[in-house]
Amino acid sequence: MNRAKKKYESKLRGFEILNIRTEKGEKKIEEYGISYTPTFLILDKNDKEISRYVGEAKEEIFFKFIEEKLKN
């Protein structure tokens, strides 16, 4: 996750990548309706969900997911 943050933080203001563990992140899991891990969310600056990717992903797939959403 640190590699993704370094790669994209200059493109987005307030960009943050969180690693929410199910046993410690119950509030966030409930807030965003996460029922499967891993789940990757892209949120706007108001914490509104823009997009979601569910399932394991190699780093290049994860980066592609982020890049596609940056184009929109």
Question: How would you briefly describe this protein structure?
Answer:
The protein has 72 residues and is α+β, with helices and mostly antiparallel strands. The protein has 3 helices and 2 strands; from the N terminus they run H-H-E-E-H.
Write a structural description:
This protein is of the alpha+beta class and 72 residues long. The model has no long low-confidence stretch (mean pLDDT 78). The two termini are 22 Å apart. The chain has helices at residues 2-8, 26-32, 59-71, and strands at 39-43, 49-54. The protein contains 3 helices and 2 strands, in the order ααββα. A two-stranded antiparallel ribbon has the order 1-2. The chain has one domain (2-71).
Total beta strands: 2
Q: Please trace the helix and strand order, writing H or E for each element.
A: HHEEH
Mean pLDDT: 78
The backbone outline, from C-alpha atoms, is globular
Number of domains: 1
